[in-house]
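I hope you will forgive my troubling you with a question about protein structure. Here, with my thanks, is the record as I have it:
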Amino acid sequence: MEKYTLPELPYDYNELEPHIDEATLRVHHLGHHAAYTKKLNAALKDIVEILRNNEQIPDKWRTDVINNGGGFVNHALYWATMSPNPKSEPRTPTGKIGDLIDKSHGNFSMFKQWFDEQVNSMFGSGYTWLCQDVTSGFLTILNMGNQESPVAYRLNPVLVIDLWEHAFYLKHQNKRPGYVHSWWHLVDWERVNELLEWWQNQNIHDEL
């Protein structure tokens, strides 16, 4: 069976500075994401399909699959929707994601406020997600704890912020709001559009 490998980042470890520091990114990617990848390879084929149907996983494996499979996919999505922005230039959604945000939340400012409120309400470790409902096509923002994945609820995740402390603690210590403020400068809306299109076009047996 072909094993999952740690995806390479689409940028160098120092290129998300000053928003995410090189030391944090190295530990996050080479430590945490690599560990999920290693553990994931124990018993997986198509992780997206498995996470979609996790209720069918035998009890003795379900927790490990959700934790490590979710950790693998969630991190891959987190890296994929960021890009370097050393001058901290403002970024706003364009194209289809921009249209969907305006339709669901009125405008980007209102959307961002709603997203930040969800982030601030997140207790403990987990992620805040922007997802498209596969049935209605509407966008939804939700929090999920630990390594749970939105794909288990028939949602297509298109943007995510990692709220585990290892994502920001070296630079921001326990000040999560500072990390969130910096993260907005890294969101690459063109890549979000690409991910939105990928979900719409993919075969459910394809891998990330």
Remarks:
- Residues 203-208 have pLDDT under 50 and may be disordered.
- The chain has one domain: 21-207.
